[in-house]
Amino acid sequence: MPSDKLRVFTRYLPFLLKYGLKFLYQRLQATVHRRTYCSLPSPQTVLVIGGSFTGVWLARRLTESLPSGYKVILIEKNSHFNYLFNFPRYSVLQGHEQQAFIPYQGLFENAPEGIFEQITDEVICVREGDVELRSGKCIQYAYLVIATGATQSPPAKLLASRKGEACAELRVLQTRIKEAERIAVVGGGAVGVQLSADVKSFYPDKKVVLIHSRGQLLSNFGVRLHEYVVGKLAALGVDVLLGERPATPGDGKWESAELILKDGRSELFDLVIPSTGQTPNTSIIAGFAPSSISAQTGRILVKSTLQLEGDGKFDEVFENIFALGDVAETGGPKMASAGMMQGEIVRENILALIRGEQLAEYTPLALEGALKLRLGKDECVMYIQEDDGTDFMFPGKNGNVDLEAAKAWKMFGAVFEEEANE
Ligand SMILES: Cc1cc2nc3c(=O)[nH]c(=O)nc-3n(C[C@H](O)[C@H](O)[C@H](O)COP(=O)(O)OP(=O)(O)OC[C@H]3O[C@@H](n4cnc5c(N)ncnc54)[C@H](O)[C@@H]3O)c2cc1C
C-alpha cells in the first residue's frame, strides 16, 4: 500500500494547485487594491467581532479587497493575538509564555490608509445596525461578522485579556505542575493529550494520568489516531484511563483532589487539570436573535452562505450578518483552517452584497480538519480524515522547544520577543 504522504499528495494535488494559483491571484489583486483604494469621508463599516484565527484572517483579507467608501473595524477583547496552539506547551515549559501573545499592529501595517481600525474592547450586545461595547461606546455597522469562537477551560483558552495577566495565568500552572508529584489531566481532547504528554516528557519522574470519559481519545477523529496516540503516551509513561468521568474541582481550578473512579476506587492527586468542554460565545446575540442559536449545540445557526439563519421575521436584517469559525454551526470542522476558509466565503459574499451579485456557498473540505498534535518534547503527528472514514496520518518531529514561536510572530509581521517584555 502506498505511504500516507503519497496518498494525500495525489489526492489533494489538484486542490493544492488550484489553491496555489488562487493565492498568487489574491496577492496580485491585493497589490492593485493597495494602489487604487481611496479613503473617503464617512465610509460604511464592515464590523468583525473576534480577532483570533478566523476574525483576523477575514479582517486582513477585507483590507485587501473592500472598495473605496468601505472600511473594516475589528473588535477584539484581548490586547494581543492569543497563539493558543502553544498554550499546552507554555503551561509546562517555563520562560516562554510571553511568546504566545503576539502584537496585532504588524498584521495591518501594509493595509491602505483609512481602511482598517482595531478596537480593543468587548462587544456586549448586537442590535440592528449597531453593537454596544463594554466601555459604553456604540459602533454602527453596514455588515456584521461574528467570529467570537468558544470559551474553553484554561489553559486551552485563558481568562485574562491583557498580556501580562495572561502570562501570569500560565506561570501559575507551570509552578503547580513543577511542584506536584501526581498529576491528573481530565479530558482526552487535543489539549488534554498534548498537556499530559508534555508534562511527562519535561518531568519524566512525575506520575501523569490522562482520564477520558469515552472509549476513544480525540473522539472527533479516527480510531487510527487514537491507537497511535495511546501507543506514544504509553511509551512516554503516561497512564491512560478511558470510560471514566470523575467529578473534578471545576473548570480553571488547578487544585489537589481525590478522584473517584467508576469501580469506587479513589486516587489522590496533588494536581488535577480539567480540560473538558467548549461553550460557544453567543451571548451577544441572545437578545437580538435568540432563534439563531442552536438549542442542541449552542452555536449560531447559519445558512450555507454563512449568513445568520433567522425565523423568517428578520430575514432582511440578517442578510448583512454573518457568523463563522468555532462559534457557528457551519457544517465544517472546529479548526483554525476551517475558520480561514469560511472567512474567504464571507469576504466574497460581503463584496457580492455590495455589488449586487450572487452569493457563494460554503462546502467544507476534509483538509480543513487537518490536526497537528504534539506528543511530548520531540514528536508530533499530522492527521486528516475524510467523510467516508479514509484517513491520512504522518508522524513527525517537533522543531525547537518553543514550537517555532518566532515563525508565528513573523507571519503576524511582529518583531519576535524571545525574552519576557510585557
Ligand atoms: C492546543 C490547541 C491546538 C489546536 N490545533 C489546531 C490545529 O492543528 N489546526 C487547526 O486548524 N486548529 C487547531 N486548533 C483549533 C483552533 O485553535 C480553533 O479552531 C480556532 O482557534 C477557532 O478560531 P475562532 O477565531 O473561530 O475562535 P477563537 O479562537 O475561540 O477566538 C474567538 C475570539 O473572539 C474574541 N471574542 C469573543 N467574544 C468577544 C466579544 N464579545 N467581544 C470581543 N471579542 C470577543 C476572543 O477573545 C477570541 O480572541 C487547536 C486548538 C487548541 C486549543
TrEMBL record:
Segments crossing the lipid bilayer: none
Superkingdom in the source lineage: Eukaryota
GO cellular component, one term: cytoplasm
Positions of the FAD/NAD(P)-binding domain: 45-343
Pfam family, one: Pyr_redox_2
Gene Ontology MF terms in the entry: electron-transferring-flavoprotein dehydrogenase activity; flavin adenine dinucleotide binding
Record-linked PANTHER family: APOPTOSIS-INDUCING FACTOR 1, FAD_NAD(P)-BINDING DOMAIN-CONTAINING PROTEIN
Protein name: FAD/NAD(P)-binding domain-containing protein
Organism annotation: Hyaloscypha variabilis (strain UAMH 11265 / GT02V1 / F) (Meliniomyces variabilis)
